[in-house]
């Protein structure tokens, strides 16, 4: 199969945009109210450790992605079974992300446009990018990465200048003690967005300088995590805990409060750009990871599956829920509690143990052979 190469700068941009993705738009840990930014900060530290775990898993058997690692650890028949599970998982998350974006567009920009049109349009863009290759997606991320940061900081500056910031909204801090924050870490905060980094076990083998990739992956996770915590704090002091918790799109609600000299208003376009870039990158990465699984099973280049699978995911994005409330409920209950944990922690943990055991066994056999 054709080898694709990613630079370290592109990897950093992919991880940063991936982690912010839908998290900064949909809101993370808003149920923690005034303590949301604290929970995200703690989850960032734990998420960095999780990213290190995923990197270590790939490093144990060089040039093997997640699917190939499972074959190394479990044998091919068992690996195909688990690979099918991951393919479904990656495609399912990709469809949820497309629905997130469609709901935002319907709410903020095009209320009269059918949701099917929005989903199909963004999916056609994703399919085209992936058909060209993951390198193209990486270059797109690298180019627009500074714009993403710039627009987010502009929104924050405009909120301050508009006089919409109320620091008293951040009080009381830890009013109910530390236990609610601890309970919010798992499965909630740790699985979304940090646990979703499992998808990079399919991508890391494409990085040209793999040895230096460890620092880049950890740096990207830390920067994105603490930036998300900072943005959540800004949304909290701009909206208040109640509005932030019950708003469908907290960042959009905060942006609509901006009014600078009755001239700079309606900055929804910034939010839409951030969401579009985040969903485009994140959904593309999940779709790519699933396609690589099909490539592993059928020994056919993943580009051959790009269009038909993209169209199937578009259809499922529409059928996944009858309304936005049902869509969110499914994400909070089913996905977070029953889908994320085994795919992000259970199977990788078992795989790590088996690979360590096999490597130790091979090392022992090699030493015995040398001694003999």
TrEMBL record:
It comes from the Bacteria. GO terms for cellular component: membrane. It is found in: Membrane. It is a multi-pass membrane protein. InterPro entries: Spore_GerAB. Keywords: Germination, Membrane, Transmembrane, Transmembrane helix, Transport. The chain crosses the membrane at residues 12-30, 36-57, 69-92, 112-132, 144-165, 185-204, 216-241, 269-290, 302-321, 341-357. It holds the Pfam family Spore_permease. One of its GO terms (biological process) is spore germination. Belongs to the amino acid-polyamine-organocation (APC) superfamily. Spore germination protein (SGP) (TC 2.A.3.9) family. This is GerAB/ArcD/ProY family transporter. The lineage of its organism: Bacteria, Bacillati, Bacillota, Bacilli, Bacillales.
């Amino acid at each position: 199969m054709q080898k694709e190469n990613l630079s370290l700068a592109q990897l950093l941009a992919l991880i940063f945009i991936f982690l912010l993705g839908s998290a900064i738009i949909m809101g993370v840990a808003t149920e923690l109210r005034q303590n949301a930014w604290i929970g995200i900060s703690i989850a960032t530290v734990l998420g960095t450790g999780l990213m290190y775990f995923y990197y270590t898993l790939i490093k144990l058997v060089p040039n093997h992605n997640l699917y190939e690692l499972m074959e190394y650890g479990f044998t091919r028949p068992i690996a195909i079974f688990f690979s099918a599970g991951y393919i479904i998982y990656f495609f399912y998350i990709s469809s949820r992300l497309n629905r997130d974006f469609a709901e935002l567009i319907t709410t903020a920009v095009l209320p009269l446009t059918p949701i099917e049109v929005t989903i199909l349009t963004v999916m056609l863009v994703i399919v085209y990018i992936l058909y060209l290759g993951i390198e193209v997606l990486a270059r797109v991320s690298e180019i627009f990465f500074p714009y993403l940061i710039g627009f987010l900081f502009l929104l924050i500056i405009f909120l301050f200048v508009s006089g919409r910031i109320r620091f008293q909204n951040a009080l009381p801090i830890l009013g109910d003690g530390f236990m609610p924050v601890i309970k919010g870490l798992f499965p909630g905060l740790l699985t979304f967005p940090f646990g979703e980094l499992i998808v990079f076990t399919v991508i890391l083998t494409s990085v040209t300088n793999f040895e230096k990739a460890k620092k880049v992956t950890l740096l990207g996770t830390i920067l994105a995590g603490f930036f998300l915590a900072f943005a959540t704090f800004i949304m909290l002091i701009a909206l208040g805990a109640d509005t932030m918790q019950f708003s469908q799109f907290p960042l959009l609600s905060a942006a609509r409060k901006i009014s600078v000299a009755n001239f700079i208003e309606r900055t929804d376009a910034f939010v839409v750009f951030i969401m579009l870039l985040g969903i485009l990158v994140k959904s593309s990465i999940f779709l790519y990871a699933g396609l690589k699984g099909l490539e592993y099973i059928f020994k056919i280049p993943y580009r051959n599956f790009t269009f038909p699978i993209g169209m199937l995911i578009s259809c499922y994005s529409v059928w996944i829920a009858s309304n936005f409330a049902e869509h969110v409920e499914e994400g909070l209950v089913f996905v977070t509690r029953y889908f994320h944990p085994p795919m992000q922690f259970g199977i990788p943990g078992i795989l790590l143990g088996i690979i360590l055991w096999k490597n130790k066994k091979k090392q022992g056999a090699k030493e015995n052979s040398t001694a003999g």
